[in-house]
Fold these 2 entries.
Entry 1:
Amino acid sequence: MKHNTHIYLAAKGIEFLYEGLDNLHYAASDRKAASATITKRRREGKILQRMLMHYEDVISEATWAPDDILNDKAQYHTFKLYTEKEFPNSVRYARETHQGKYYRVAGGGGLPYKVDHLARVLSDMDKLRKYNDRCSMNQIMYQYLLISHYIVDAHVPMHCDLRDDPPSATDTKKPRNGHYYSNELHGEIEQLWEDAVKPVAIEEGIIKTKRKEDDSKPTDLSEQIQFNVINDEHRGKIRPYVIPDNDLMRYMIDLCIQSKERALLLFPIAAPLKWNKSLFPKMTREIFAQAISNLITVWIWIWGEQ
Ligand SMILES: [Zn+2]
Protein backbone atom coordinates (compact mmCIF):
# COMPACT_ATOMS: atom_id res chain seq x y z
CA MET A 1 0.00 0.00 0.00
CA LYS A 2 1.07 3.59 -0.51
CA HIS A 3 1.63 6.39 1.99
CA ASN A 4 -1.83 7.95 2.34
CA THR A 5 -3.46 4.52 2.38
CA HIS A 6 -1.27 3.49 5.33
CA ILE A 7 -2.10 6.70 7.20
CA TYR A 8 -5.81 6.35 6.45
CA LEU A 9 -6.03 2.72 7.57
CA ALA A 10 -4.13 3.35 10.81
CA ALA A 11 -6.44 6.31 11.54
CA LYS A 12 -9.47 4.07 10.87
CA GLY A 13 -8.04 1.36 13.13
CA ILE A 14 -7.92 3.96 15.91
CA GLU A 15 -11.39 5.31 15.07
CA PHE A 16 -12.95 1.82 15.25
CA LEU A 17 -10.86 0.56 18.16
CA TYR A 18 -13.64 0.80 20.73
CA GLU A 19 -16.78 0.18 18.66
CA GLY A 20 -15.08 -2.52 16.60
CA LEU A 21 -14.42 -4.57 19.74
CA ASP A 22 -18.19 -4.90 20.18
CA ASN A 23 -17.90 -7.24 17.19
CA LEU A 24 -15.03 -9.29 18.58
CA HIS A 25 -15.02 -12.82 17.13
CA TYR A 26 -13.71 -16.09 18.49
CA ALA A 27 -12.69 -19.46 17.19
CA ALA A 28 -15.57 -21.88 17.88
CA SER A 29 -13.60 -23.60 20.67
CA ASP A 30 -13.15 -20.32 22.54
CA ARG A 31 -16.80 -19.35 22.75
CA LYS A 32 -17.36 -19.99 26.44
CA ALA A 33 -15.27 -17.08 27.62
CA ALA A 34 -16.70 -14.77 24.98
CA SER A 35 -18.92 -12.28 26.75
CA ALA A 36 -16.65 -11.63 29.75
CA THR A 37 -13.68 -11.20 27.46
CA ILE A 38 -15.49 -8.81 25.14
CA THR A 39 -16.20 -6.52 28.07
CA LYS A 40 -12.58 -6.73 29.23
CA ARG A 41 -11.13 -6.18 25.76
CA ARG A 42 -13.44 -3.24 25.14
CA ARG A 43 -12.27 -1.65 28.36
CA GLU A 44 -8.64 -2.15 27.31
CA GLY A 45 -9.44 -0.94 23.81
CA LYS A 46 -10.91 2.28 25.14
CA ILE A 47 -7.64 3.12 26.91
CA LEU A 48 -5.49 2.13 23.95
CA GLN A 49 -7.67 4.25 21.66
CA ARG A 50 -7.19 7.23 23.93
CA MET A 51 -3.42 6.67 24.03
CA LEU A 52 -3.11 6.37 20.25
CA MET A 53 -5.23 9.47 19.73
CA HIS A 54 -2.85 11.34 22.00
CA TYR A 55 -0.01 10.51 19.58
CA GLU A 56 -1.97 11.17 16.39
CA ASP A 57 0.58 13.70 15.14
CA VAL A 58 3.10 10.89 14.43
CA ILE A 59 0.72 8.65 12.41
CA SER A 60 1.97 10.00 9.10
CA GLU A 61 5.63 9.31 9.80
CA ALA A 62 5.35 6.14 11.87
CA THR A 63 3.01 4.27 9.51
CA TRP A 64 5.26 5.07 6.56
CA ALA A 65 8.70 4.57 8.16
CA PRO A 66 8.96 0.88 7.09
CA ASP A 67 8.81 1.85 3.38
CA ASP A 68 10.85 4.97 3.87
CA ILE A 69 13.32 5.21 6.77
CA LEU A 70 13.66 1.49 7.57
CA ASN A 71 13.25 0.43 3.95
CA ASP A 72 12.95 -3.29 4.67
CA LYS A 73 10.42 -3.91 1.90
CA ALA A 74 12.21 -6.82 0.27
CA GLN A 75 12.74 -8.64 3.56
CA TYR A 76 9.59 -8.06 5.60
CA HIS A 77 6.65 -6.50 3.72
CA THR A 78 5.78 -9.60 1.75
CA PHE A 79 5.24 -13.33 2.05
CA LYS A 80 5.51 -14.68 -1.49
CA LEU A 81 3.60 -17.93 -1.79
CA TYR A 82 2.96 -20.26 -4.70
CA THR A 83 1.07 -23.49 -5.20
CA GLU A 84 1.06 -26.40 -7.64
CA LYS A 85 -1.85 -24.68 -9.41
CA GLU A 86 0.29 -21.89 -10.90
CA PHE A 87 3.61 -23.74 -10.95
CA PRO A 88 3.05 -27.50 -11.41
CA ASN A 89 5.73 -29.89 -10.15
CA SER A 90 7.73 -27.10 -8.52
CA VAL A 91 7.88 -28.28 -4.93
CA ARG A 92 11.68 -28.42 -5.13
CA TYR A 93 11.85 -24.61 -5.01
CA ALA A 94 10.02 -24.53 -1.67
CA ARG A 95 11.94 -23.39 1.39
CA GLU A 96 8.81 -23.68 3.56
CA THR A 97 5.37 -25.24 3.22
CA HIS A 98 2.27 -23.85 4.90
CA GLN A 99 -1.11 -25.57 5.30
CA GLY A 100 0.32 -28.42 3.24
CA LYS A 101 0.13 -26.73 -0.16
CA TYR A 102 1.38 -23.15 0.01
CA TYR A 103 5.08 -22.92 -0.73
CA ARG A 104 7.49 -20.09 -0.07
CA VAL A 105 10.78 -19.75 -1.96
CA ALA A 106 14.04 -18.68 -0.30
CA GLY A 107 14.03 -14.90 0.04
CA GLY A 108 10.26 -14.80 -0.33
CA GLY A 109 9.72 -12.21 2.43
CA GLY A 110 9.11 -12.79 6.13
CA LEU A 111 6.15 -10.55 6.92
CA PRO A 112 4.47 -12.79 9.56
CA TYR A 113 7.82 -13.25 11.34
CA LYS A 114 8.37 -9.49 11.47
CA VAL A 115 4.90 -8.83 12.91
CA ASP A 116 5.37 -11.54 15.53
CA HIS A 117 8.80 -10.22 16.46
CA LEU A 118 7.76 -6.55 16.63
CA ALA A 119 4.71 -7.43 18.70
CA ARG A 120 6.91 -9.18 21.25
CA VAL A 121 9.43 -6.34 21.31
CA LEU A 122 6.57 -3.95 21.98
CA SER A 123 5.38 -6.04 24.86
CA ASP A 124 8.95 -6.12 26.27
CA MET A 125 9.26 -2.34 25.89
CA ASP A 126 6.24 -1.88 28.10
CA LYS A 127 7.69 -4.21 30.76
CA LEU A 128 10.94 -2.18 30.71
CA ARG A 129 8.97 1.04 30.93
CA LYS A 130 7.31 -0.18 34.10
CA TYR A 131 10.53 -1.61 35.55
CA ASN A 132 13.12 1.11 35.00
CA ASP A 133 11.49 3.74 32.79
CA ARG A 134 13.97 3.04 29.96
CA CYS A 135 11.24 3.01 27.32
CA SER A 136 8.71 5.80 27.11
CA MET A 137 5.05 5.61 26.18
CA ASN A 138 5.97 7.95 23.35
CA GLN A 139 8.31 5.29 21.88
CA ILE A 140 5.78 2.53 22.49
CA MET A 141 2.94 4.33 20.72
CA TYR A 142 5.26 5.06 17.79
CA GLN A 143 5.87 1.31 17.48
CA TYR A 144 2.11 0.58 17.59
CA LEU A 145 1.72 2.82 14.57
CA LEU A 146 4.82 1.41 12.89
CA ILE A 147 3.65 -2.21 13.19
CA SER A 148 0.40 -1.16 11.47
CA HIS A 149 2.37 -0.89 8.23
CA TYR A 150 3.29 -4.57 8.19
CA ILE A 151 -0.19 -5.71 9.29
CA VAL A 152 -1.81 -3.68 6.50
CA ASP A 153 0.68 -4.92 3.87
CA ALA A 154 -0.34 -8.52 4.64
CA HIS A 155 -3.74 -7.75 3.08
CA VAL A 156 -2.31 -6.81 -0.32
CA PRO A 157 -2.82 -9.81 -2.64
CA MET A 158 0.35 -9.00 -4.62
CA HIS A 159 2.44 -9.04 -1.44
CA CYS A 160 1.58 -12.70 -0.86
CA ASP A 161 1.89 -13.96 -4.41
CA LEU A 162 5.17 -15.18 -5.90
CA ARG A 163 3.85 -14.35 -9.39
CA ASP A 164 4.40 -10.68 -8.53
CA ASP A 165 8.16 -11.30 -8.46
CA PRO A 166 9.46 -12.60 -11.80
CA PRO A 167 12.92 -14.21 -11.56
CA SER A 168 15.83 -12.36 -13.10
CA ALA A 169 17.76 -14.13 -15.89
CA THR A 170 20.26 -15.64 -13.44
CA ASP A 171 17.81 -16.47 -10.63
CA THR A 172 17.59 -20.22 -10.11
CA LYS A 173 15.55 -20.09 -6.92
CA LYS A 174 12.12 -19.55 -8.49
CA PRO A 175 10.01 -21.83 -10.69
CA ARG A 176 9.64 -20.81 -14.34
CA ASN A 177 6.88 -23.06 -15.59
CA GLY A 178 4.06 -20.60 -14.92
CA HIS A 179 2.99 -17.03 -15.60
CA TYR A 180 4.27 -14.08 -13.62
CA TYR A 181 2.78 -10.61 -13.74
CA SER A 182 4.90 -7.49 -13.62
CA ASN A 183 5.68 -5.11 -10.82
CA GLU A 184 3.86 -2.49 -12.89
CA LEU A 185 0.50 -4.08 -12.16
CA HIS A 186 1.35 -4.08 -8.46
CA GLY A 187 1.99 -0.31 -8.51
CA GLU A 188 -1.04 0.34 -10.68
CA ILE A 189 -3.41 -1.38 -8.26
CA GLU A 190 -1.90 0.27 -5.18
CA GLN A 191 -2.27 3.60 -6.99
CA LEU A 192 -5.99 2.93 -7.56
CA TRP A 193 -6.37 2.53 -3.80
CA GLU A 194 -4.25 5.59 -3.08
CA ASP A 195 -6.29 7.74 -5.49
CA ALA A 196 -9.52 6.50 -3.91
CA VAL A 197 -8.24 7.18 -0.39
CA LYS A 198 -6.61 10.59 -0.73
CA PRO A 199 -9.70 12.80 -1.31
CA VAL A 200 -11.59 10.96 1.45
CA ALA A 201 -8.69 11.26 3.91
CA ILE A 202 -8.35 14.99 3.15
CA GLU A 203 -12.10 15.55 3.51
CA GLU A 204 -12.04 13.79 6.91
CA GLY A 205 -8.99 15.77 8.06
CA ILE A 206 -6.85 12.61 8.36
CA ILE A 207 -4.23 14.02 6.00
CA LYS A 208 -3.41 17.63 5.25
CA THR A 209 -3.14 19.15 1.80
CA LYS A 210 0.50 19.97 1.02
CA ARG A 211 0.81 20.08 -2.78
CA LYS A 212 -1.28 21.37 -5.63
CA GLU A 213 -2.08 17.84 -6.82
CA ASP A 214 -3.71 17.14 -3.46
CA ASP A 215 -6.79 18.85 -4.85
CA SER A 216 -8.11 15.50 -6.07
CA LYS A 217 -11.71 14.33 -6.53
CA PRO A 218 -13.14 11.05 -5.25
CA THR A 219 -12.77 8.16 -7.72
CA ASP A 220 -15.16 5.31 -8.62
CA LEU A 221 -13.46 3.29 -5.90
CA SER A 222 -13.70 5.90 -3.11
CA GLU A 223 -17.02 4.57 -1.83
CA GLN A 224 -15.42 1.15 -1.26
CA ILE A 225 -12.75 2.45 1.09
CA GLN A 226 -15.02 4.62 3.27
CA PHE A 227 -15.65 3.57 6.84
CA ASN A 228 -17.34 5.79 9.35
CA VAL A 229 -17.78 4.74 12.96
CA ILE A 230 -21.27 6.28 13.23
CA ASN A 231 -22.53 4.24 10.26
CA ASP A 232 -24.21 0.95 11.35
CA GLU A 233 -23.40 -0.86 8.13
CA HIS A 234 -19.73 0.16 8.26
CA ARG A 235 -19.44 -0.90 11.91
CA GLY A 236 -20.89 -4.29 10.98
CA LYS A 237 -17.98 -4.85 8.60
CA ILE A 238 -15.30 -4.34 11.27
CA ARG A 239 -14.80 -7.75 12.87
CA PRO A 240 -11.67 -8.10 14.99
CA TYR A 241 -10.68 -11.53 16.22
CA VAL A 242 -9.37 -13.08 19.40
CA ILE A 243 -6.23 -14.71 18.03
CA PRO A 244 -6.74 -18.50 18.23
CA ASP A 245 -4.38 -20.29 20.67
CA ASN A 246 -2.66 -16.95 21.21
CA ASP A 247 -0.58 -17.81 18.13
CA LEU A 248 0.04 -14.48 16.40
CA MET A 249 2.55 -15.90 13.92
CA ARG A 250 0.11 -18.57 12.74
CA TYR A 251 -2.62 -15.90 12.51
CA MET A 252 -0.43 -13.74 10.27
CA ILE A 253 0.60 -16.69 8.07
CA ASP A 254 -3.07 -17.65 7.62
CA LEU A 255 -3.85 -14.07 6.72
CA CYS A 256 -1.12 -14.09 4.05
CA ILE A 257 -2.58 -17.33 2.67
CA GLN A 258 -5.95 -15.62 2.40
CA SER A 259 -4.29 -12.79 0.47
CA LYS A 260 -2.64 -15.37 -1.79
CA GLU A 261 -6.08 -16.84 -2.51
CA ARG A 262 -7.35 -13.35 -3.35
CA ALA A 263 -4.41 -12.95 -5.75
CA LEU A 264 -5.50 -16.14 -7.52
CA LEU A 265 -8.97 -14.63 -8.01
CA LEU A 266 -7.63 -11.27 -9.12
CA PHE A 267 -4.91 -12.52 -11.48
CA PRO A 268 -6.08 -15.56 -13.48
CA ILE A 269 -3.48 -18.33 -13.59
CA ALA A 270 -3.26 -18.66 -17.38
CA ALA A 271 -3.21 -14.90 -18.06
CA PRO A 272 -2.52 -12.92 -14.88
CA LEU A 273 -2.05 -9.63 -16.73
CA LYS A 274 -5.74 -9.78 -17.71
CA TRP A 275 -6.68 -9.05 -14.13
CA ASN A 276 -10.24 -9.25 -12.86
CA LYS A 277 -11.37 -5.62 -12.82
CA SER A 278 -15.03 -6.48 -12.19
CA LEU A 279 -14.19 -8.25 -8.96
CA PHE A 280 -11.89 -5.47 -7.78
CA PRO A 281 -14.36 -3.02 -6.13
CA LYS A 282 -15.94 -5.73 -3.96
CA MET A 283 -12.54 -7.14 -3.09
CA THR A 284 -11.28 -3.66 -2.18
CA ARG A 285 -14.13 -3.30 0.32
CA GLU A 286 -13.28 -6.66 1.89
CA ILE A 287 -9.55 -5.92 2.03
CA PHE A 288 -9.99 -2.53 3.67
CA ALA A 289 -12.53 -3.82 6.19
CA GLN A 290 -10.26 -6.72 7.05
CA ALA A 291 -7.18 -4.50 7.34
CA ILE A 292 -8.95 -2.21 9.85
CA SER A 293 -10.27 -5.26 11.74
CA ASN A 294 -6.84 -6.85 11.93
CA LEU A 295 -5.15 -3.69 13.13
CA ILE A 296 -7.54 -3.84 16.08
CA THR A 297 -6.97 -7.60 16.43
CA VAL A 298 -3.18 -7.30 16.70
CA TRP A 299 -3.06 -4.04 18.66
CA ILE A 300 -5.38 -5.37 21.32
CA TRP A 301 -3.48 -8.66 21.42
CA ILE A 302 -0.26 -6.78 22.21
CA TRP A 303 -1.96 -4.43 24.65
CA GLY A 304 -3.59 -7.36 26.47
CA GLU A 305 -0.21 -9.10 26.78
CA GLN A 306 1.06 -6.38 29.08
ZN1 LIG B 1 5.25 -1.69 2.68
Note: Residues 66-67, 73, 77, 149, 153 surround zinc ion (CB under 6 Å).
Entry 2:
Amino acid sequence: MLDSSGLSRREVLQKCVALGSITLIASQSSAAMLLAFEEKELHKPTPPNELGPFYKKRAPQTAMLRAAGDPGMPLSVSGQILDTRGEKLPNVVVEVWQTDHLGHYDLDGYRYRAKLPADGSGNYKFESVMPGHYPDRVCQHIHYLVTAPGHKPLVTQLYFATDPVFEGDPDKNFNRDPLIHSRELVRPVMLVGDPKDIHAAVNFELCLERV
Ligand SMILES: [Fe+2]
Protein backbone atom coordinates (compact mmCIF):
# COMPACT_ATOMS: atom_id res chain seq x y z
CA MET A 1 0.00 0.00 0.00
CA LEU A 2 1.41 3.37 -1.00
CA ASP A 3 0.76 6.70 0.64
CA SER A 4 -0.05 9.88 -1.29
CA SER A 5 3.64 10.38 -2.07
CA GLY A 6 3.82 6.95 -3.72
CA LEU A 7 6.05 5.53 -0.99
CA SER A 8 5.37 2.35 0.95
CA ARG A 9 5.17 2.59 4.74
CA ARG A 10 8.61 1.00 5.03
CA GLU A 11 10.04 3.47 2.52
CA VAL A 12 8.55 6.37 4.50
CA LEU A 13 10.22 5.09 7.67
CA GLN A 14 13.53 4.62 5.83
CA LYS A 15 13.24 8.18 4.55
CA CYS A 16 12.60 9.37 8.12
CA VAL A 17 15.85 7.69 9.16
CA ALA A 18 17.74 9.19 6.23
CA LEU A 19 16.46 12.69 6.96
CA GLY A 20 16.93 12.46 10.71
CA SER A 21 13.22 12.39 11.66
CA ILE A 22 13.91 9.07 13.35
CA THR A 23 17.20 8.43 15.09
CA LEU A 24 18.10 4.82 15.73
CA ILE A 25 20.16 4.34 18.87
CA ALA A 26 20.74 0.65 19.24
CA SER A 27 23.09 -2.14 18.41
CA GLN A 28 20.54 -3.76 16.12
CA SER A 29 20.38 -3.22 12.38
CA SER A 30 18.17 -0.41 11.13
CA ALA A 31 15.95 -2.96 9.36
CA ALA A 32 15.35 -4.83 12.63
CA MET A 33 14.65 -1.57 14.46
CA LEU A 34 12.16 -0.40 11.84
CA LEU A 35 10.39 -3.76 11.88
CA ALA A 36 10.05 -3.54 15.67
CA PHE A 37 8.78 0.03 15.35
CA GLU A 38 6.14 -1.02 12.83
CA GLU A 39 5.04 -3.92 15.03
CA LYS A 40 4.62 -1.61 18.01
CA GLU A 41 2.39 0.59 15.89
CA LEU A 42 0.07 -2.24 14.88
CA HIS A 43 -3.61 -1.56 14.72
CA LYS A 44 -5.68 -3.76 16.96
CA PRO A 45 -7.85 -6.23 15.06
CA THR A 46 -11.57 -5.52 15.37
CA PRO A 47 -12.88 -7.63 18.26
CA PRO A 48 -14.87 -10.67 17.13
CA ASN A 49 -18.45 -11.26 18.21
CA GLU A 50 -20.91 -14.11 17.77
CA LEU A 51 -22.29 -15.01 14.34
CA GLY A 52 -25.77 -15.64 15.74
CA PRO A 53 -28.43 -17.89 14.23
CA PHE A 54 -29.81 -15.59 11.51
CA TYR A 55 -27.04 -15.45 8.92
CA LYS A 56 -28.10 -16.41 5.38
CA LYS A 57 -25.80 -17.06 2.46
CA ARG A 58 -26.29 -15.49 -0.97
CA ALA A 59 -27.39 -12.06 0.22
CA PRO A 60 -27.87 -9.59 -2.64
CA GLN A 61 -25.01 -7.33 -3.60
CA THR A 62 -26.12 -3.85 -2.70
CA ALA A 63 -25.21 -0.95 -0.43
CA MET A 64 -28.84 0.18 -0.11
CA LEU A 65 -30.62 -1.94 2.47
CA ARG A 66 -33.32 0.65 3.11
CA ALA A 67 -36.25 0.82 0.71
CA ALA A 68 -38.11 4.04 -0.02
CA GLY A 69 -40.70 4.62 2.69
CA ASP A 70 -39.24 2.15 5.17
CA PRO A 71 -40.12 3.23 8.72
CA GLY A 72 -37.44 3.76 11.32
CA MET A 73 -34.45 6.06 11.68
CA PRO A 74 -32.42 6.16 8.45
CA LEU A 75 -28.87 5.03 9.15
CA SER A 76 -25.62 5.37 7.21
CA VAL A 77 -22.72 3.17 8.21
CA SER A 78 -19.24 3.62 6.81
CA GLY A 79 -15.65 2.87 7.64
CA GLN A 80 -12.19 1.95 6.56
CA ILE A 81 -11.07 -1.63 6.12
CA LEU A 82 -7.50 -2.04 7.33
CA ASP A 83 -4.94 -4.68 8.13
CA THR A 84 -3.07 -4.57 11.43
CA ARG A 85 -0.32 -2.47 9.84
CA GLY A 86 -2.88 0.21 9.14
CA GLU A 87 -2.84 -0.36 5.40
CA LYS A 88 -6.17 -0.23 3.58
CA LEU A 89 -7.46 -3.51 2.17
CA PRO A 90 -9.21 -2.99 -1.16
CA ASN A 91 -10.46 -6.49 -1.98
CA VAL A 92 -12.67 -7.28 0.97
CA VAL A 93 -16.11 -8.90 1.02
CA VAL A 94 -18.32 -7.37 3.71
CA GLU A 95 -21.65 -9.05 4.48
CA VAL A 96 -24.06 -7.38 6.88
CA TRP A 97 -27.44 -8.43 8.25
CA GLN A 98 -29.78 -6.91 10.80
CA THR A 99 -33.40 -6.65 11.88
CA ASP A 100 -35.82 -4.02 10.66
CA HIS A 101 -36.64 -1.14 12.99
CA LEU A 102 -39.02 -3.35 15.00
CA GLY A 103 -36.48 -6.10 15.66
CA HIS A 104 -37.63 -8.60 13.02
CA TYR A 105 -35.20 -10.56 10.86
CA ASP A 106 -36.33 -11.45 7.36
CA LEU A 107 -35.96 -15.22 7.50
CA ASP A 108 -37.75 -15.90 4.21
CA GLY A 109 -36.13 -13.25 2.07
CA TYR A 110 -33.22 -10.84 2.10
CA ARG A 111 -34.50 -7.57 3.54
CA TYR A 112 -31.75 -5.88 5.54
CA ARG A 113 -29.19 -8.39 4.33
CA ALA A 114 -26.44 -7.48 1.89
CA LYS A 115 -23.08 -8.29 0.45
CA LEU A 116 -21.54 -4.85 0.00
CA PRO A 117 -19.99 -4.04 -3.35
CA ALA A 118 -16.22 -3.61 -2.93
CA ASP A 119 -15.23 -0.10 -3.95
CA GLY A 120 -11.56 -0.98 -4.37
CA SER A 121 -10.45 1.79 -2.02
CA GLY A 122 -10.45 0.02 1.34
CA ASN A 123 -13.60 1.85 2.44
CA TYR A 124 -17.16 0.58 2.81
CA LYS A 125 -20.52 2.24 3.21
CA PHE A 126 -24.16 1.20 3.32
CA GLU A 127 -27.56 2.74 3.91
CA SER A 128 -30.07 1.15 6.24
CA VAL A 129 -32.30 1.89 9.22
CA MET A 130 -31.48 1.73 12.90
CA PRO A 131 -32.21 -1.90 13.89
CA GLY A 132 -34.77 -2.64 16.58
CA HIS A 133 -34.54 -4.67 19.74
CA TYR A 134 -35.72 -8.28 19.79
CA PRO A 135 -36.50 -10.54 22.72
CA ASP A 136 -33.44 -12.83 22.56
CA ARG A 137 -30.96 -9.96 22.51
CA VAL A 138 -30.45 -7.02 24.83
CA CYS A 139 -29.02 -4.44 22.42
CA GLN A 140 -29.59 -3.17 18.90
CA HIS A 141 -26.89 -4.49 16.59
CA ILE A 142 -25.77 -5.16 13.03
CA HIS A 143 -23.95 -8.39 12.20
CA TYR A 144 -20.81 -8.48 10.05
CA LEU A 145 -18.94 -11.25 8.23
CA VAL A 146 -15.80 -9.85 6.62
CA THR A 147 -13.47 -11.88 4.40
CA ALA A 148 -10.33 -10.95 2.48
CA PRO A 149 -7.65 -13.04 0.77
CA GLY A 150 -4.75 -13.79 3.12
CA HIS A 151 -6.63 -12.66 6.22
CA LYS A 152 -8.62 -14.34 8.97
CA PRO A 153 -12.39 -14.00 8.49
CA LEU A 154 -13.87 -11.50 10.93
CA VAL A 155 -17.28 -12.20 12.46
CA THR A 156 -18.44 -9.32 14.60
CA GLN A 157 -21.30 -7.00 15.51
CA LEU A 158 -21.77 -3.26 15.59
CA TYR A 159 -23.60 -1.65 18.54
CA PHE A 160 -24.83 1.90 19.05
CA ALA A 161 -23.91 4.25 21.90
CA THR A 162 -27.46 5.67 21.72
CA ASP A 163 -29.02 2.31 22.64
CA PRO A 164 -31.30 3.04 25.64
CA VAL A 165 -29.85 -0.03 27.36
CA PHE A 166 -26.62 1.91 27.96
CA GLU A 167 -28.46 4.82 29.61
CA GLY A 168 -26.12 7.25 27.88
CA ASP A 169 -23.00 5.70 29.43
CA PRO A 170 -21.68 2.84 27.29
CA ASP A 171 -18.30 3.02 29.06
CA LYS A 172 -20.01 1.88 32.24
CA ASN A 173 -22.92 -0.12 30.86
CA PHE A 174 -21.71 -1.80 27.66
CA ASN A 175 -21.75 -5.25 29.22
CA ARG A 176 -25.43 -5.09 30.11
CA ASP A 177 -25.66 -7.15 26.94
CA PRO A 178 -23.75 -10.30 27.92
CA LEU A 179 -22.65 -10.76 24.30
CA ILE A 180 -20.75 -7.47 24.25
CA HIS A 181 -17.25 -8.37 25.37
CA SER A 182 -15.58 -5.24 24.04
CA ARG A 183 -16.48 -1.58 24.51
CA GLU A 184 -14.91 -0.90 21.11
CA LEU A 185 -17.88 -2.44 19.33
CA VAL A 186 -20.22 0.23 20.71
CA ARG A 187 -19.89 3.15 18.31
CA PRO A 188 -20.86 6.81 18.66
CA VAL A 189 -23.87 7.95 16.63
CA MET A 190 -23.89 11.24 14.75
CA LEU A 191 -27.21 12.85 13.93
CA VAL A 192 -27.06 14.66 10.61
CA GLY A 193 -29.48 16.60 8.43
CA ASP A 194 -32.20 18.87 9.78
CA PRO A 195 -35.11 18.01 12.09
CA LYS A 196 -37.39 17.27 9.13
CA ASP A 197 -34.87 14.97 7.46
CA ILE A 198 -32.70 13.64 10.23
CA HIS A 199 -30.64 10.48 9.96
CA ALA A 200 -28.03 8.69 11.99
CA ALA A 201 -24.47 8.08 10.85
CA VAL A 202 -21.96 5.69 12.34
CA ASN A 203 -18.33 5.00 11.57
CA PHE A 204 -17.11 1.47 12.21
CA GLU A 205 -13.55 0.60 11.25
CA LEU A 206 -12.81 -3.01 10.34
CA CYS A 207 -9.29 -4.28 11.01
CA LEU A 208 -8.38 -7.77 9.83
CA GLU A 209 -5.50 -10.01 10.95
CA ARG A 210 -3.30 -11.77 8.46
CA VAL A 211 -3.41 -15.57 8.47
FE1 LIG B 1 -28.81 -10.60 15.77
Note: The pocket of fe (ii) ion is lined by residues 52, 54, 137, 141, 143 (CB under 6 Å).
